[in-house]
């Protein structure tokens, strides 16, 4: 087994090039690795901890930049959060309705989850005035999807482009309960409205067209909220006003981060890799179903339940992949994994079609356009569709200069593609990986050894 040469070059403006030189023969991925804590669960543990009475203990928190943004916003509103680490983070909650009015703008950085979930909390917090913003990417992402239902509840929110873009200003008021029929399957929209419902007297319901991740529902219940779920209609109802009580949260490894290694292990010949301690909540395992359709060899070992979330070790062995069609209700259950699935499709026999995924155009970057451009630069046959991509496998990739467009999942997907590209690939602005996976390069070096 020969090693890939992986180097990081830091430029004067602090942006980084990740340079990957694949050996001409003999690379295979072996060993047992762990991925960092789940990003969605990390955000929710910090937020609910801050809104609870008593202390919350979080084990396995993701130390990426996104949860750091959540922590600093809630610290600015009075929550006491111990130094962030993976061992044990203590959050001393201040209780629902007791947020301190922050003296400055709350900055959610790159994190859509921080901003959208927090809007539900702030809008329903009577008496407070709040301003929120984010980085260049977040300030261009649509907020009307959460502002609209909040306004139906009576929220007072102002912002650019008819209150649809951050920076936003919020005057917290007592809201009225609604039944919101969301036009999109989005856990951020669902969670925003449910969080607003916590402080609102009566029953607040969200119905979505397909089931999105249910971490909020699981955690809200565990923290003491009155919640009912109707699986037949994809509806969730919260009854307010609620009281939340501090809990112990154990954050499993993030399946969205594990996805990079699952695809790497599938496409790099002779690989046999185990990713330990991965959350396999059924609302998140669309990636396993898509890879199974492609013929991938992935085994779930040591399946168990940890603090209300299903967890397993995932073993992947390389095989020849087949094309498939990824569409419909599967999309919300693998939405963040589509960039790396596009890489898998490049190595699958036949034409893979990804559709019903227009949401990808409003993520940290336009992930349809960016993946199509960057993979095409490496020699892949990718056609952009308005709501997805068509990828014809079987072409050989050639290393070249590619760009993450400051999107963490694009940076990591291109790094995995480069393991099967000839020559040298340079991924520009690769530091974006730290949003959700600060140790990505170190683990890449470890598995390629
Ligand atoms: C998330 C929900 C998803 C996902 C994002 C995290 C969450 O976004 O893409 O990375 O934690 O609720 P949408 O709700 O916009 O689909």
Describe this entry's structure for a reader.
Monomer. Keywords: Amino-acid biosynthesis, Aromatic amino acid biosynthesis, Cytoplasm, Transferase. InterPro entries: Enolpyruvate_Tfrase_dom, Enolpyruvate_Tfrase_sf, EPSP_synthase, EPSP_synthase_CS, RNA3'P_cycl/enolpyr_Trfase_a/b. Catalyzes the transfer of the enolpyruvyl moiety of phosphoenolpyruvate (PEP) to the 5-hydroxyl of shikimate-3-phosphate (S3P) to produce enolpyruvyl shikimate-3-phosphate and inorganic phosphate. Its EC number is 2.5.1.19. This protein has 2 domains: 5-37 and 252-447, Enolpyruvate transferase domain (UDP-n-acetylglucosamine1-carboxyvinyl-transferase, Chain), CATH 3.65.10; 39-250, UDP-n-acetylglucosamine1-carboxyvinyl-transferase, Chain (Alpha-beta prism), CATH 3.65.10.10. The strands form 8 sheets. Strands 1-2-28-26 form a 4-stranded mixed β-sheet, covered by helices on one side. It has a 4-stranded mixed β-sheet with strand order 3-16-18-17. The protein has a 4-stranded mixed β-sheet with strand order 5-6-4-15, covered by helices on one side. Helix 1 runs parallel beside helix 2, helix 4 packs parallel to helix 6 and helix 10 packs parallel to helix 12 (408-418). The protein is α/β, with parallel strands linked by helices and 449 residues long. The chain has 13 helices and 28 strands. Strand 23 (381-385) and strand 24 (388-392) form a beta hairpin. The model has no long low-confidence stretch (mean pLDDT 97). Helix content is 29%, strand content 29%. 54% of the residues are buried. Shikimate-3-phosphate binds at residues 40, 113, 186-188, 191, 213, 335-336, 359.
